[in-house]
Each structure stands twice: as C-alpha cells, then as structure tokens.
Amino acid sequence: MQTIRSMFNPKCSSDVRLDGKTAIVTGANTGIGKETAKDLAARGARVVLACRDMAKGEQAASEIMREMNGAKVVVRQLDLGDTKSICMFAENIYNTEKTLDYLINNAGVAICPYAKTVDGYEMQFGVNHLGHFFLTFLLLDLLKHSAPSRVINVSSTVYAMGKIQFDDLNGDKDYHPVRAYAQSKLANVLFTRELAKRTEAQGVMAFSVDPGIVNTEITRHIRRPLVDIAKIFSFLIRTPAEGASTTIYCIVTPENEMFTGGFYKNCARADSCRAGEDDGTALKLWAASCHLLGIRWR
Ligand SMILES: NC(=O)c1ccc[n+]([C@@H]2O[C@H](COP(=O)([O-])OP(=O)(O)OC[C@H]3O[C@@H](n4cnc5c(N)ncnc54)[C@H](OP(=O)(O)O)[C@@H]3O)[C@@H](O)[C@H]2O)c1
Predict the structure, then answer these.
(1) How do residues 86-144 score in pLDDT, each as one tens digit?
(2) 130 CB under 6 A from ligand 1?
(3) What are the chain's domains?
(4) Pseudo-torsion of CA 165, 185, 193, 153, nearest 10°?
(5) Which long-range contacts does 292-297 make (Cβ < 8 Å, 24+ apart)?
(6) CA 20 to 30 Å from 155, out of 148, 183, 281, 286?
(7) What is the DSSP string of 230-246?
(8) Does any ligand 1 atom lie closer than 6 A to the CB of residue 36?
(9) Is 102 a catalytic residue?
(10) Amino acid 45: pLDDT
C-alpha cells in the first residue's frame, strides 16, 4: 500500500536551505498552507502566516515552534475577502519586512453556497482570485526589490473545467458552486501566466500549482456521501504535507530548471490545457480584475 501511495504522491526531495529568506503563506493556519509554512520554517526561512483568524493562526505558529526549536514564524491578520484588510496587511509587511522572497497565494474557499465577500464579490472568485490578485499587486514592489523572488498561486486541476464568465463574474445571474470554484482556479492559472510575462524582466517568477487531492478542511462545503466515496480511493488522497510538496518544489528548484508562468503538479512541470494557455482571456481577466478593484496595474 505504501508503494502504491508513493507512486501517486511524489515528494520534493530537495534539502535546499532558505536561511535569510522571507516567505508569506496565505491560509497558513491549516491544511496545505500550514504544512507549506512548516516546511519553509524547517529550511530556515522567516515565515509570515497570513491568516483570517488570528487565534487559529497563533495556534498553528505555536505548533510549528513546538516542533521546531528556533522556527522564525509570525502571524499577521489577512482577510482576502476584504480589500481594507488586504491593504492593512500589505502596509504592515512594508513596515516590518525588509525583503519578500516568496509570496505563496494558497488560501482558498471551495464549492461553497452562494455568498459575497465584504466588498460584494462572489466568495470563491473574490477570495481565491481577486483577493490574491490585489495582494500581489500591493506587494509587487517588495518582491521586485527582493529579486530573484517568486509568486506561487495554488490552483487545482479543476481549472481545466473552468470558464471565465465575463458577463457574470460574480455569479449574480447564474451561480453553481463547482463552476464558480473552477472559474476561480482557472483565474489563478491565467493570472500566473500574465504576471510572469510582466515581471520576468524584473526577476520575479510566477508559478501555478495543483496540490493533488488532499485531506484537508476544504471539503467543509461538500456533501458527506461524496467525501465518503472519495475515501475508497484513499491511496490517491494526499496528506497536507504531501499536498505542499509541489509548492515547495516551485520554491527550492533552481531558476534555470523552472519555467516562469508554468503550471506544476506532482513536483514537475505539467501540460496545461487550452483554457490555461489562452493569453487573450488572461489579458481580459487582468483588465476586468483591475476594473473591479479600481486599480491601475499596467
Ligand atoms: N485539498 C484539496 O484537495 C485541494 C485540491 C486542489 C486545490 N486545493 C487548493 O489548495 C489551497 C489550500 O486549500 P486546503 O486544502 O489546505 O484547504 P483548507 O484546509 O480549507 O484551508 C484553506 C485556508 O484558506 C483560508 N481562507 C479561506 N478564506 C479566507 C479568507 N477570506 N481570507 C484569508 N484566508 C482564508 C482558511 O482560513 P480559515 O481556517 O479561517 O477558514 C484556511 O486557512 C486552496 O487554494 C485550494 O483551492 C486544495
């Protein structure tokens, strides 16, 4: 069983150290984000746990510090569904961090009933895409200043089912939880492609990642019978640490072996499907996101 598991769940075997580096991980209080933060801290990085709920964040930080003597982790409040919170978070980062080497846009909400963010965007599009788009926009100067630096957007292979509904980005006319999730994950892939083009010359690389099927709290909105059926295929279901492997791979792999703008899974570059390579849609999404957020990002 262990051999079958390892066939389906490749691990990042690199022992690269990250002493002196600084990383931000969104949604770091649980699941894949917490394991990503733990791995980075074990490599010596200073890690900012960007969490919506400070109590949960402090709990995760205590766990990491208990497991690792001398781990450099701090918790900062960030609600990706609230642009004021994102602004305050970014301001705090500029006040406290001299450099930012890795921005890991990991937080996510999946397949939830229709809901809106504080700013009135549909929850999955608002948190998974717009929140991270805005956060990256605000932190880009620091990333450029710290170059070579990297942005990792945690997407999902579900993106291949996605379509960007430009006439109904917020699902006001027709909302389907799975469709909205797939749209948000496609947006992660398209944002990565466009960001990579715009920042390559300044030494900021960008990658999108599929963590695999991972046993986390992400299933909180998914109906019980479906979750139970999935357990039959338990050899395919990854632990949160295994789910963090491809993100870590995208951080520690040498620059000359990485393709900025690329989609990665199973600790390797993966073919992206046509929807994920549509540069016209990527550009249109960029413009629509700027318009919704009221920002100029050329
Ligand atoms: N698990 C999988 O099988 C799977 C597969 C493909 C892709 N992914 C992607 O992997 C990423 C991590 O998911 P996970 O599986 O680790 O899920 P998880 O255990 O549910 O963790 C999600 C994290 O995102 C945070 N979050 C949600 N809404 C937020 C907001 N408005 N502001 C700030 N943080 C917020 C959560 O905070 P709270 O604890 O406060 O809610 C939590 O820390 C997501 O982007 C997900 O789409 C997961």
Answers:
(1) 999 999 999 999 999 999 999 999 999 999 999 999 999 999 999 999 999 999 999 99
(2) no
(3) 2-11+21-293 (3.40.50.720)
(4) 150
(5) 292/121, 292/130, 292/169, 293/83, 293/130, 293/133, 293/134, 293/137, 295/134, 295/137, 297/137
(6) 148
(7) HHTTGGGPBPHHHHTHH
(8) no
(9) no
(10) 98
